[in-house]
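Example 4.3 (complexes with small molecules)
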Amino acid sequence: SKKVGGSANGLADDSTKADIIKKLEYTVGASPSDAKAKDAYQAVALSVREQLLDKFNKTQEYWKKQDPKFVYYLSAEFLMGRSLWNTVYNLGLEGKYGQAVNALGYKLEELREQEQNAALGNGGLGRLAACFLDSIATLDLPGWGYGIRYKYGMFKQALKDGFQDELPDIWLTNGNPWEIARPNIQYRIGFYGSVDNHKWSPAEQVIAQAYDNPIPGYNTSTVGNLRLWEAKPVNEFALDKFNEGKYDEAVTERRKAEDISAVLYPNDATEYGKELRLKQQFFFVSASIQDVLARFKESHSNLKDLPSKAMFQMNDTHPTIAVAELMRLLIDQEGLGWDEAWAITVKTLAFTNHTVMPEALEKWPVKVMGKLLPRHMEIIDKIDSIWKDSLKEKVLGNLEKAGKSAKPAAAAKPKASTDGKPAKKAGAEVEEEEEEDPVEKELTRYGIITENPWEKGVKLVNMAFLAVVGSSSTNGVAHIHSEIIKETIFKDFYEIYPEKFQNKTNGVTPRRWLAYCNPGLAALITKALGTDAWIKEAHLLEGLRKFAGDKDFQAKWRAVKLDNKKRLKAVIKARVGIDVPVNALYDIQIKRIHEYKRQYLNMLSVIHRYHHIKSLSPAERKKVVPRVVVFGGKAASAYYMAKKIVKLVTAVGDVVNKDPDVGDLLKVVFLPDYNVDLAEVIIPAAELSQHISTAGTEASGTSNMKFQMNGCLIIGTMDGANVEIAEEIGKENMFVFGVDADDVPRLREERKNFKDYDPRFTAVLKSIADGEFGNKEYFADMVASVSDMTKGNDWFLVANDFATYMDAQEEVDALYGDQDEWTRRSILYTAGSGFFSSDRTIDQYAKEIWNVKPVAPPA
Ligand code: 26Y
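Answer. The structure with 26Y bound is encoded below.
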């Protein structure tokens, strides 16, 4: 049984200690007598790495021998965070290493702080991929992740005068003990050039080189793999140019190649259209598929067997060029015919959608794709025309049934994007086509290649449509989201292929997100349940239900929360210098800054709270429930409104936090550089967390699940996975508010005449507009965006949902006064969180999409 920081027998393990010292001396190059904590971390990591590699090699060898079907998780992002702690615990080495490190005069808890975050992702989608790898290994499923080894990960966020400042994430300076460079595993990746009689001659080539990152399963012999590709030049250095004195040109090729894997695009909604991003996508997809085919061919001769040995799961549209690349490799390199190749491709690929927001659904200009990947463009063209041909009869039938075969339907008006403004050039209305074939016209709805509705004549490749047609399964990431995609973005496809559509509600790993980040609560749970088996079988958390009303257990539960709050309080003090009380409700909203996530709505209620406190007499103030409101999250660098939200939080904090009328009754904190390791400190300390997106906009959310696991109550809308969380814990135990997703389209129409402003809403907005928090001009358009229909149109229904949000907040305050009931609910949240383990999610993917079965190497 595992014990945090403990050891099995209480005896010093001399060989572990000796090994760490050896690493320190001969690899790190530091003398044990004056090694810094950073050196000690390196030495410990290098020592742990050997234990990890031992199991890794055995697992991979065993899988090779057994030759089972593998899943390959293709993702442009893997937000891994730190590895030391996770590796030590997943491998069950905490006793051994805890003790050896103590004997050397350090603490494992301190050393782990020395590790750089591997932040190769933006947010939810990237962290989901990381949780999935943990579960794939833990469930002994033969599977690898495939992605890009970005040299610079997610930018670091700093605050300058309360504004967001962006700094590069230089994470590899001290080396990375968790990876294995594989200079012998390299593939050529081509770009540009021409196609002659279906044969592609790329004009440029780069090399993709593999780096393996072993992924330890929990309490099992399995160690999986994340293979990341680095881009390298074919020719390192042009000596002839150098000799001519052209020093820059001597390294041009190297620089251009290295650019491909240099930096993660720090945007989780737009930025496609940028050629470099498409290059990145093709780069890692091509290398990964070539790699899988090469291994397959080592022991198989018939490519028809590929679908029984390999499944690629495409994480959003980012890797969906895989449809065309697999077709190309099968046809052009392996010599298969189109139909054979197509059958294999569809069976071998599956697709996950993570958004319905139009600006995040990648559509590449045919011009860009045709230039960079001319052969792929040709293949996509053919897929599109075969696909449309196959629909002709059906479309004709439908038209006849509707009795409108003669008349062309009215041209669709361009839709507004989610910020309420036309996404592309305004005014470029689609003109009525003259005498178009009505069947052809109907078919455009299904087009993988479509015309840009805002730019006449500009053709786009709709990558999501390509993925649906070119794969065997399309899934959403929460029940409500999977329903919405069938009714909206993929409606026409769902009608044709109902059997392709599935739901796989997201999950998070209970190892990192409960057992390791909240050791106090983990110990209490293990004691109550009499076993730590819940770490692998999260449904066992159900067993906590019977303790929910137990006063003694409640007291212990609260004591753990208090400890975690103290830990967060110290981090807040250290990072932003703000003193926050511990005897206050810790109210948290941490996630990427987005209008749809409505941090703004939260702020409006904070400002109202501030005004309310100020309006009370000193005697009345004694009855106020004190709150510490914490925000964290990054704004995409070019996202104008998101950046203003950051400033609004810090500007309000500057006023509120030093107002003597308020004192400890309200603190407003923006914690900069929110990332995985900050989340590991914040989430265990949270008492209330906010998941308040406009219904229908947040595909799932995953931090909601992490908070729930840690016994944090939720205030939220009926959106994403909140809906299912409410089902698991009882809706009456959640602070639910806001309109339902079904009502949003109608309300968006009606909002144009919205007059029913809550007087509290009006007063709060006025205070911002009047400059109570300074920056009057800077905030003016933010104010207008939700209150002046001539300036903005409140697309996300902030004004509309304000009143019910305030009601829910009042319920929160009232309930916090009843600590027994609050704690009872807190326990019920954790008890009901088993369903949201990524082990459950992955088990469903494995059985219902991948048909991949566990193969555990012998221990
Ligand atoms: C097109 C490109 C710029 C792009 C890059 C990253 C587009 C989107 C993204 C990332 C999206 C993302 O993180 N989506 C989130 O995925 C989570 C996991 O499924 C969901 O829980 C969450 O609701 C969704 O917003």
